[in-house]
């Protein structure tokens, strides 16, 4: 899907289908934004013919394994490839690439799905309005990505707090699966924010961004937001490692308690078996001919078992 916007007086307006086939429908707009989401083969070919950009600039965003990078050769369009987070399920997050292609007077964003933060950027520009400089729009997109990481890590932190409370009272398999999902998400986030760092630095080094005071302010905010995301991810990862150790220790402790109780019960039940086996031999034994021998043995077994139970209970084995 391809949608084109033109920025008039700080606000985006969606271009009509006819005007989308021309690079410059008119000269009144501050700049243009082409949003590409899951393009098919026909749309991909049309984009390549319309903008004359390298094919890998677009296809890179469709490869889920692509890593963030920057690319520009001579006077060719600049590519800034970011990683952004997506949510599959509760506690299950992944990352996807986003291509930001900067041309004179135009920005193209390409992604394999429709990122929620891009909808917020669009809504802001279509609502209260935004900066009229193209560089500021690119910085706003990058800042929205970092902000999205921060929001998702906060959600993971809330889940970690819930797991921390549950793990103290139960060792449910569901908790273990949640911990695995959260750890995988944090690993993906950590790699993505680290790989986004060089791209953010490349924005700082780009001449087109350093000439705008507003763009520089946005880039500084972007650095702070990305640093905050990385710190939060590192803290959450450390907590998860501690929780994993705690969970493993809790399982081992509960297993030791169960084995201790079962062993004590086995010893208690062994006493009647030994006594019954001794008086079951075919030889003369004390009280063998006594009429109340059976009840005497029952009382003896009960007394010894009771004594063992009291002893084990006092030692904390039961």
TrEMBL record:
Assigned keywords, A-Z: Membrane, Transmembrane, Transmembrane helix
UniProt-annotated location(s): Membrane
Record membrane topology: Multi-pass membrane protein
InterPro entries, per the entry: CorA-like, CorA_cytoplasmic_dom, CorA_TM1_TM2, MgTranspt_CorA/ZnTranspt_ZntB
SUPFAM superfamilies, per the entry: CorA soluble domain-like (SSF143865), Magnesium transport protein CorA, transmembrane region (SSF144083)
Transmembrane segments: 261-280, 292-312
Any matching Pfam family: CorA
Chief place where the protein resides: membrane
Alphabetical list of CDD domains matching this protein: EcCorA_ZntB-like_u2
Similarity comment text for this entry: Belongs to the CorA metal ion transporter (MIT) (TC 1.A.35) family.
Protein name, entry field: Magnesium transporter CorA family protein
Species in which this protein is naturally found: Peptoniphilus equinus
Organism taxonomic ancestry: Bacteria, Bacillati, Bacillota, Tissierellia, Tissierellales
